[in-house]
Amino acid sequence: MSKPIVRFAPSPTGHIHIGNTRVALLNALFARREGGTFILRFDDTDLARSKQEYADSIEADLAWLGIPPNVVVRQSERFELYDDAAERLKGIGRLYPCYETPEELEFRRKRQLARGLPPIYDRAALKLTAEDRARLEAEGRRPHWRFRLDHRTVEWDDLVRGHAHVDCGSLSDPVLVREDGTYLYTLPSVVDDIALGITHVIRGEDHVTNTAVQIQIFEALGAKAPVFAHHSLLITASGEGLSKRLGHLSVKGLREAGLEPQAVASLAVLVGSAEAVRPMADLDELARLIDFSHISRAPAKFDEHELEQLNARLIHEMPYEAVRERLAALDADGGEAFWNAIRGNLSKVVEAAEWWVVVRGPIVPLITERAFVEQARNLLPPEPWDGRTWKAWTEAVKEATGVKGKALFLPLRMALTGLDHGPELGALLPLIGREKAWARLSGEAA
C-alpha cells in the first residue's frame, strides 16, 4: 500500500466533541502507523457561522490529543477550485439549474407521498426551456444547482462495512450550489479530496449515502474515488447522539476537567471494536490496534464513568518524569518519592496539589483518641526515616498499647493527615518528617 493521505474535516462552528475526535484519531493514527499524511481541512464555506476562535480551539484539541496535523487547509481559501469544478459539471450536463421555492418543493413532496411515491425530486427543471428559465429569472428567481445522478447502484468495498452499495435511483439529485452561489458540503469535499490526493476517507457511518453521491461526482470529474471506511458513531451513555451545537462531551471540556489525552484517545478509538477497552499511554501502540474490519456496526456508547476509570488507571502507572513539569506548575513537585507515594490515590493529576498540602502543611490534625495518640507520639523513632519507619513505629505502638488493626492505624492516619483515607503511610510518613509528625500528634496545626 502506498503511503496514505487522510483528512479530518470539521466545520469551525463550535467546539468538537468526542465523536468528532473519534474520526480525527482514526485518521491520524492510521496515517501515523503507515507513515502517511494527516490533513486538517476546515470546512468553513459557511462564512457566517465559521469562527476563527473555533478553528483555533480545534487545533488546540488535536495538539492536546497528540495528533497535530501535517497540513492545514481552509475551504474558504479555495473557492476558485470549486467554481472551476462547478463549471465543468455544467458543461457536461451533470449540474443543472432549478427554480423551485422551498414551499413548492414541500408541496410536491407531500403530493408524491400521498400517491405512494418516494418523495424524491422529480427533475422537473430538466424540462425547462431557455425561454422558461428566462421568464423565471425575470420574475426574480435565482437558480439552485442540482447534480444529475445516474440512476444506478453504486458499489464499493468499505474497510469497515465490507461490500457496500446504494441505489441512487432512490435518491434526489442533490443540490450542490445554493441560490446565492454558495456551496453545500458535497462538491467542495470531493474537489478537495481530488486536489489533495486523499487516498482514504475515514468517517462516520452517517455519510454512507453521501458516499454513493460523491463517487458519482468523482467519476464525473474524471477522478478515481478514494478508499472509504465508515465506522460506527459514538453516543452518550444514555443513548443520545452527540451534538457539537449542544456541547456534548466537548474535547475542550474534557481537557479543562483535567482528564488525560491518552485516556480520551484510548476510549474513543477502542470502544465499539473487537479490542478490549484499556488505557494506552503510547499513541503508536494505540495505532497498532486499529483494525477497521474489527469495528462494530452498532453505535458505541462513550461512558464518562468509564473514561474516569481509564484516566485513573493511566495515572496510577504514570512515571514521575511524565508529570514533573505539571507538578511544578501546581506547586506540588515533591519529587519522585512523593509522586510514587500518591499516584495510586489520584484520579486526576491536579489532585496531587491536595496531597502536597497534606505533606507540606499546615493541616489541622483530627484527634479522636487523644491518650492513644500521645502514647504513639512518644514512641516516634528518631530520624532518618525511610519506607520501613511506619511499620517499625506501628509495631512498637501495638506492642506498647495492645491496640491493633483499624483501631491502631485510623487514629494515627487522621492525626497525621487530617483525613481518614489516603496513600500508604509507609511512603507518606518520611515525606511528612518527624518534626511535623510530632506537632500533629500533639494536636497542633503543622
UniProtKB/TrEMBL annotation:
SUPFAM superfamilies: An anticodon-binding domain of class I aminoacyl-tRNA synthetases, Nucleotidylyl transferase. A motif ('HIGH' region) lies at residues 10-20. Its EC number is 6.1.1.17. This is Glutamate--tRNA ligase. A motif ('KMSKS' region) lies at residues 241-245. Belongs to the class-I aminoacyl-tRNA synthetase family. Glutamate--tRNA ligase type 1 subfamily. It catalyses: tRNA(Glu) + L-glutamate + ATP = L-glutamyl-tRNA(Glu) + AMP + diphosphate. Residues 383-442 form the Aminoacyl-tRNA synthetase class I anticodon-binding domain. Pfam families: Anticodon_2, tRNA-synt_1c. InterPro entries: aa-tRNA-synth_I_cd-bd, aa-tRNA-synth_I_codon-bd_sub2, aa-tRNA-synth_I_CS, aa_tRNA-synth_I_cd-bd_sf, Glu-tRNA-ligase_bac/mito, Glu/Gln-tRNA-synth, Glu/Gln-tRNA-synth_Ib_cat-dom, GluQ/Sye. One of its GO terms (biological process) is glutamyl-tRNA aminoacylation. GO terms for cellular component: cytosol. ATP binds at residue 244. It is found in: Cytoplasm. GO terms for molecular function: ATP binding; glutamate-tRNA ligase activity; tRNA binding. It comes from Microvirga thermotolerans.
